[in-house]
Amino acid sequence: MAYVTQEKLFSKEWFKAYSYILLGTFIMAVGFVMFISPYKFAPGGVYGISIILHHLFNFPIGITGLSIDIPLILIGMKILGAKFGIKTIVGIVINAIVLSVFQLLFKDPLVTDKFMAAIIGATLCGGGLGIVFAQGSASGGTDIIALIINYYKNITPGRVILICDIIIIGSTYFIFHSIEKVMYGYVVMAVVSYVIDLVME
After folding, report:
1. Which residues contact 173 (CB under 8 A, 6 or more apart)?
2. Rounded CA gap, 124 and 120, in Å?
3. CA–CA distance from 101 to each of 49, 150, 162 (Å)?
4. What confidence tens digit (pLDDT) does each residue in 140-168 have?
5. Backbone φ and ψ of 109, nearest 5°
6. CA-CA distance, 35 to 109, in Å (whole number)?
7. Cα–Cα–Cα angle for 76, 27, 134, nearest 5°?
8. What is the maximum span of the chain, computed from C-alpha positions, in angstroms?
């Protein structure tokens, strides 16, 4: 899928790009709400943190993710400037809305097997994220942190995201007291990364 950079407002390409962003967030929301969150898998990133807070305090996943992303977006725009366009903001907002709506509508997982839930959920999340990334948008959170650190230090964004995700997933042990959930989190993280790369090729 070609990486879309910028389109004329309300042109055919503009509608196509934002339609893909909406599609990607829809697919990702299905993966999160129907497969990953019910089993308390935290796949890293802002929405991994959101899942943890949801199960601790019943905070809405989408709104929690958005509340974490907003200050990061503002900091990122100040430091990185043009690298943070309207698509990133739109993608994050749409993602938060879709996740919140899905969370209200669907309470139970679609499959009873945890491993299948992890694989299917991760595949959907990775596919949705890949579609969003391919349109020049971003998922926020650790992506922004990685780009800010990369701006000041010669550390690749991928390495920063990996470190952040490892820490976030590992921290779930102290909350859920389950090595199984930690390992499932790492499985989800690996599958998501693999599927994103497949979609972006």
Report:
1. 179, 181, 182
2. 6
3. 19, 34, 29
4. 677 778 778 878 888 776 678 778 888 88
5. -65, 155
6. 6
7. 50
8. 51
Compute the average pLDDT of residues 65-69: 86
Hey, what amino acid is at 97? I
Q: Is 140 left (phi over 0), alpha (psi -120 to 50) or beta?
A: left
Q: What pLDDT is stored for residue 1 in this prediction?
A: 40
HEC-encoded secondary structure of 82-131: HHCCHHHHHHHHHHHHHHHHHHHHCCCCCCCCHHHHHHHHHHHHHHHHHH
Q: How large is the angle between the packed helices 86-105 and 12-31, nearest 10 degrees?
A: 40
DSSP for residue 3 = P
Give the SS3 label for residue 2: coil
Structure tokens at 70: 């907003």
- Using alpha carbons, list the distances in angstroms from residue 130 to 42, 97, 113, 152, 183: 19, 19, 25, 26, 23
Query: Position 67: which residue type?
Result: S
The full length of the chain comes to 201
**Which amino acid makes up residue 78?**
K
Helical packing angle, 61-80 and 45-57, nearest 10°: 140
Confidence of residue 3 (pLDDT cuts 50, 70, 90): very low
